[in-house]
Records
---
Amino acid sequence: MAPTSDASAELLSLRKSIDNIDAALIHLLAERFKCTQTVGRLKAAHQLPAADPERERRQIDRLRGIAEESELDPAFAEKWFNFVVAEVIHHHERIAGESEGTR
Ligand SMILES: O=C(O)C(=O)C[C@]1(C(=O)O)C=C[C@@H](O)C=C1
C-alpha cells in the first residue's frame, strides 16, 4: 500500500534527522580514532600493551550506566564499545609493529 502524503512527509522529516545524526556519529568516530591513533603511538613509543582490559571494564560499566539513563539498551552499548575497541587494538598493534621495525 502507498503511504499517505502525511506519512511521506513525516518519513522525510525523520530521515533528515537520521541523516544529521548519522553524520554526527561519523564525525565523532573520526575524532575518537584520531585520539586513539595518538594513544597508539604513545603506547608504541613506551612499549605499553595495546589492550588495557581493566580500562575497558571500567568504561563498559560507565557506558552501560549512561545507556540505561538514556533508555538505550546497555547490551547494545557494550557491543558497540567492544566493536570499536577491537578495531582500535588492531590499529595499536599495527603501529607497534611499524615502530618495532624502526628500532
Ligand atoms: O585507553 C587506552 O589505553 C586505549 O588504548 C584506548 C582504548 C579505547 O579505544 O577506548 C582501546 C584499547 C584499550 O584496551 C582500552 C581503551
---
Amino acid sequence: MANHDIFDVTIIGGGPAGLYSAFYSGLRGMKTKIIEFQPRLGGKLHVYPEKMIWDVGGQTPIRCEQLITQLVEQGLTFDPTVCLDEKVESMAKNEEGLFVLAGASGEVHYSKSVIVAVGGGILKPQKLQIEGAERFEVANLNYTVKTLERFRGSTVLISGGGNSAVDWANELEPIAEKVYVVHRKSEMAGHEAQVRQLLESRAECLLDSAITRLVASDAGDRVELVEVMNQVTGERRMLPVDQLVINHGYERDASLLENSPLDLETKDEFYLKGTPASETSVPGVFAAGDILQHDGKLNLIAGTFTDAANAVNKAKKFIEPDAANIAMVSSHNDAFNSRNQALKKQAMR
Ligand SMILES: Cc1cc2nc3c(=O)[nH]c(=O)nc-3n(C[C@H](O)[C@H](O)[C@H](O)COP(=O)(O)OP(=O)(O)OC[C@H]3O[C@@H](n4cnc5c(N)ncnc54)[C@H](O)[C@@H]3O)c2cc1C
C-alpha cells in the first residue's frame, strides 16, 4: 500500500466536467489525477468537432474543436496527472478509507475522494454490420465527421437518419460533389427544420433502404461501390462513393456504476442521483456533468462548470474539513501571481 501514490481527488472522465474539475482542484491545491478511457481529453465534444457552439457563457460562437483545445489547456493549468486509454472498471473503498479504482489496464488507483464525470458513459459508435467492413476504416469508412475538408468535392454516402446524420448531410451538401443519405425508415428522425433543409437540398435521400454490400477498390483498401437495397421494393442500386459515413448511433458502456460495490443512488438505472452541490449518496464520491442528476440540473457544457466547482469544493472539505468552502476568486488568488506576471511580460513584448 505504501508504494502507491495516493491522490487527493481522482476524476473519472476527461470531458468538460472532468477538465474543469481538474482545473478547479488544482486551484484548490489538491493532488489531482484525471482518468479517461479515450486516447485524448475532451469527452463527447469529439463527436461534433466541426460544429459551432453558441451557448457557453463568455464565448462568442466558437468551433467545438477550438473549445476542446481551450478546455484541455485550462484543465491542465495545474499539471494534474493524466491517465489516458484507461477505463475505470469499478470503485470501492478499502479498510483505510481510501477509494480504490480498478483500471482495465490492471493498474489500481488510490484516492481520498472521487469525482465521477463520466457523462453518458463510454460511447462507442455502432459499427456497420457488414462482414469485413473494418478493413476500410483507415481509408474511407468514417464513423464521425472530424473535418468537413476531408469531404470537399467528394461523393459521400451517409447511412443513418437521426439528428447527427441529418446535420452532417446538411453541412456536407454545399461542399461535396454529391451526398446520398440512406435511412432504413420511411422518414428522417432529425429536427424538423433540419430535415426540411435536407429534403429541399441537392442531397439524395434513399428511405426504407439499407447498405447490403461494399465493393472494394482494386487495391482492396477503399470502398468504391456501395450496394443499397430498398427494403420495401427489393430494388438494389450500386452507388459509386469516395467517402462513406456511418451514423447508426452509439453503444453505451455504463458498467462502472454497476460494478462498484458502493451504495450509490442512481436515477433511470444509470445517472447518479445527487444534490445541487454535486454530492452523491456516498460521502467522498462527488459527481459533475451529464452523469449528475437533480431537479435543477442543467445538461449543457455551461452546467458542467458549476457542477465541477461544487464537486471540488465538497471534495476539498471532505478531505480537509477545516478548508474554506470555496476557492478565492481567480482575480485575487495567489495561485496565479507568477502566471499573471509572465502573461504581463508577454503582453509588453
Ligand atoms: C451532437 C451533440 C451536440 C451538442 N451540442 C451542445 C452545445 O451546442 N452546447 C452545449 O452546451 N452542449 C452540447 N452538447 C452536450 C454536451 O456535449 C454535454 O453536455 C457535455 O459533453 C457533457 O460533458 P461531461 O464532461 O459531463 O461528459 P462527456 O463529454 O460525455 O465526457 C465524459 C468522458 O468520460 C469518459 N468515461 C466514461 N466512462 C469512463 C470510465 N469508466 N473510465 C474512464 N473514462 C470514462 C468518456 O470517455 C468521456 O470522454 C451536445 C451533445 C451532442 C452529442
